[in-house]
Amino acid sequence: EFCSYNTITQQFTYYDWPAFAKTLSATGYSSIQKFVQKSRNEFWLGTTKGLVLLDINTKQFKWIGAGYSSNVSGLTYDAASGKVFLSVDEGKCFVYDDKEKIYREVFPEAEPYPSSAFVVNRYNEIWLPSANGLLKISEATKWSRHIAGFSESLLPGAVRSIYKDDMGLRWIGTTNGIAIYDRDRPAAFIPL
Fold this sequence. Notes:
Shape: globular
Number of helices: 1
Low-confidence stretches: none
Strand order of the largest sheet: 3-4-5-6
Mean pLDDT: 81
Structural class: mainly beta
Strand content: over 45%
Order of helices and strands: EEHEEEEEEEEEEEEEEEE
Distance between the termini: 31 Å
């Protein structure tokens, strides 16, 4: 199910995801697991059926692509490049270039393991949650996968959520706690 709420009219608007999902495949469950805003009237949806674009004005869903059959770990949209980045629990990663209309699987390069340090080397890196660690995407759309290892590294476990605040701090939620990364100080850890 997917709904939006208008704070001015104080009304919900329903978008018929179940009917659209049935047109894609009759097998498996269909769930919207992540969503990010593309524009004022459009949202990217990370679903168990694939990447989908929803226009809330027309209430129309548009299927972009799939290539996986698992839960969505991460979804983010970079408006500057016009690209949507998606990772799924089975370890696969995808990018959709909205300008070129190309959807493809990408294969991140693994950073050295075991990792003894976590390097934050670019202000403009895109970070994406992953079941197998943290995905980092650079300007050149080079993907790398940081796998947790020792102290001063990312916490062990799957990365479930990433938030970058107004001060540039990155908050990383894992299955074992929350880490806070600042380019000017060592990482802090809040255990669960």
